[in-house]
Amino acid sequence: MGLSEIRQQIAAACALAGRDPAQVTLIAVSKQQPDDRVTAALDAGQRVFGENYVQEAQRKWPPLRDRFAGVELHLVGPLQSNKARAAVELFDAIHSIDRPSLAQRLARMVQDTGRAPRMFVQVNTGDEPQKAGISPAQADGFIAECLALDLPVIGCMCIPPDNADPTQHFRLLRDIAARNGLPALSMGMSADFQTAIAQGATHIRVGSAIFGARTTG
Ligand SMILES: *Cc1c(COP(=O)(O)O)cnc(C)c1O
């Protein structure tokens, strides 16, 4: 589809929802995309990117940041505790805070490095056993724990179950964030970002609809 079409669709979804497009950050998820596609998006002015894997991002982004000013990098994939330091050093936002051990480790790394990426608590809105994220029933307690650790948590993130109507999952996430006083909502991907915008998404994570199918491992 491409970046300009996505921007038009974001504007249309915002108009329908009576929202200002400036309230919706488009994160271009560039995981496993060939370099020329990522460079083309940078040339077209895109500056906010998402990656799933710390090591892939460590290889890819330092040279691109040397060439393009103002890049903002979001980690949207699961984070292993042993990569917490590298993640804090590289990323400007981390969307996958989902367990106390990781929160504690990140708090230590924020202290050690003096860097404080904005953070999202990932909620497993469908309570799917194979999926990352804190269970909705434990979300309030976990968010309080993160805030008590002084983590810069600004919002919640979810990935609705495949083959489910995402609307109820987006609403559940919105309710959890609202009752915990968190303003940001990271929700919506290529297939459902318009629905997410209608439900209040502030950060949408769009990969294949911008770049095409993922090709590299
Ligand atoms: C890969 C990925 C995306 C982007 O997915 P598309 O369907 O290609 O838009 C968004 N969020 C997360 C967490 C992802 O892993």
UniProtKB/TrEMBL annotation:
Its cofactor is pyridoxal 5'-phosphate. Keywords: Pyridoxal phosphate. One of its GO terms (molecular function) is pyridoxal phosphate binding. The keyword Kinase does not apply. Pfam families: Ala_racemase_N. The modification N6-(pyridoxal phosphate)lysine is found at residue 31. CDD domains: PLPDE_III_YBL036c_like (cd00635). The keyword Flavoprotein does not apply. InterPro entries: Ala_racemase_N (IPR001608), PLP-binding_barrel (IPR029066), PyrdxlP_homeostasis (IPR011078). Residues 4-214 form the Alanine racemase N-terminal domain. It comes from the Bacteria. Belongs to the pyridoxal phosphate-binding protein YggS/PROSC family. NCBIfam families: YggS family pyridoxal phosphate-dependent enzyme. PANTHER family: PROLINE SYNTHETASE CO-TRANSCRIBED BACTERIAL HOMOLOG PROTEIN (PTHR10146), PYRIDOXAL PHOSPHATE HOMEOSTASIS PROTEIN (PTHR10146:SF14). Pyridoxal 5'-phosphate (PLP)-binding protein, which is involved in PLP homeostasis. This is Pyridoxal phosphate homeostasis protein. It comes from Paracoccus alkenifer. The lineage of its organism: Bacteria, Pseudomonadati, Pseudomonadota, Alphaproteobacteria, Rhodobacterales.
